[in-house]
Prior knowledge:
This protein is mostly helical. The protein has helices spanning 6-26, 30-54, 59-82, 88-111, 121-143, 148-184. It starts with 5 loop residues before the first helix and ends with a helix.
Amino acid sequence: MKWHWLPNALSSFRLVLIVPTVLFLLDEAYFLTLCLFAVAGVSDGVDGWLAKRFGWTSRLGAVLDAAADKLLMAAIFITLGYKGLVPLWLVALVFVRDLWIVLGAWYNRHRLAEFEVRPFLTSKINTAVQICFVLLVIADAQWQLLAPSLMAGAVAVATLSVVASGLDYLQDWIRQLRQASRSRS
């Protein structure tokens, strides 16, 4: 039996998990939200490992994986903002950064013959920081773990991470556009 479809199925499963995760969060069932978020995180790790380990990568898989990750985080951040658990300006910043990356990549890909989008260390750190931040916020809503000053510190760290990652992408795109401009001259 061939299992090459399994990573795509796990990514699709993560997409399906978005709705109940958001509904649990809206219903203030924070423990269940944490559980589903953890299941989504584990499935993300497993699908990536399977795809790389067994060569079960595909263009569809790359799109599904990225879509599941971005949509889950966007839905969680929007819901946390709606519930008043994170500042709305932070929700907007996260959303604008992701939109900026997608639109910038699309624009440059169509403008440059050899444009490449590469994940930066700051982007990987930002993803980890966002996941930890979401877990912290939901856990705090469940168990009231943090003093307000500590939560403010967590917001500051998340903000710096989003900004640093966004600036790395901007700097790289400008560099690639300049190189392309020089090579055409």
